[in-house]
Amino acid sequence: MNNSKRAKLRHEKIRDLLQKNDVMKIQDLCRICDVSIATIRNDLTYLEKIGVLKRVIGGAVSTEGTCRDTIYASRINLFKEEKEKIARYVVDHIIEKNMTICLDAGTTNQYIAQALMEKDIPCKVITNASNILSTLIKSKNIEIHLIGGKLNKEHNAFFDRKAIEQAEQYKTDIYFLSPNGIDSHCISLSSRQEAIIKRVFIENANKVIVVADHSKFNRNAGNYLMDVEDVNEFISDTTIDG
User: What digits encode the pLDDT tens for the residues 18-46?
Assistant: First the structure.
């Protein structure tokens, strides 16, 4: 692996660590990333320059928000290659013609929507995400049902009472659940309000497939969604061959 590739992966890891924690010390970043203090300092200087963190004495803090309040814009490009890998697998091996699927407002589902648009599989998509609507709207073969209400601009999604009431009307073949945390017991989300509508999606789906990159594992995001044992299938970058 070349140096630029290693640096990119390390930068993504540092950003993720800072979003999970209020502050990270340089020594801890060196230990976790297994690099020298000089390397971490260079990384922090670069990441501060592009506006994703702020240097403090002995460490750094994220300017992107913690895992409990991270907005969509700051998360969409984290672990991009991993999310693209998941999306390609889902579109190539899971979604079938004439299915009714649900894509929530998680960032992994945005990549699934992009891959679905490229392949243009005839199907029905239920979503509460405005960006997924924007991605799929030009397709001639994909029927889109937008669950609406008051738009939460930080998440590019609808999950107020009106949206929840609309979500209750839709039954789906598969709900692709994009969570914030997966531990040994449960699937969780950082936003309590968003968790409510996702529970409706879970209840109304014949099958629930969790789509999540490796950074979501061994993390509890605070708001319970469902038991791990009740998930029908997990799809992650670490479980896909090739």
Answer: 877 767 899 999 999 999 999 999 999 99
